[in-house]
Amino acid sequence: MAIIDCPSCNKKVSDKAKECSHCQQSLIDIDNDKIKQLQRIARLKQSQSLMNFSFIAMLLFCGGFLMLFWRDTLPNSLEYILSVSATIIGFILYIVTRVRILFLKRSK
Ligand SMILES: [Zn+2]
To answer: Does pTM top 0.70 for this prediction?
Structure first.
């Protein structure tokens, strides 16, 4: 018995399994074309969710940034700490997500 990657969700499944235990993709009667097609769909879904994620990170960053400068937040107040954290976390998440998108595109 060997462990293979599910062609649909890329999680580890047994090669003896009739279907993937994670996404219920049938693993019998599956040819190379079908695998390629499923991998393309999986990659598309992954890049789509990364795009959504980078959008959320961007919103977090902008939200924190705007709150910091539009409102007169006092340094060391809770509001100030929250906006600074949102800005920093949003920025880091955005960069990380963009890099992941870049790698995903490059591995095509
Ligand atoms: Zn699967």
So the answer is: no
The model's pLDDT over 3-34, given as tens digits with 9 standing for 90+, comes to 888 888 888 998 888 899 998 888 887 788 88
Residue 36 alpha carbon to ligand 1 centre in Å: 14
**Residue 83 CA, ligand 1 centroid: distance in Å:** 39
Residue 72 alpha carbon to ligand 1 centre in Å = 50
Check: CB of residue 23 under 8 Å from CB of residue 6: yes
Measured in angstroms, how far is the CA atom of residue 108 from the centroid of ligand 1?
Answer: 20
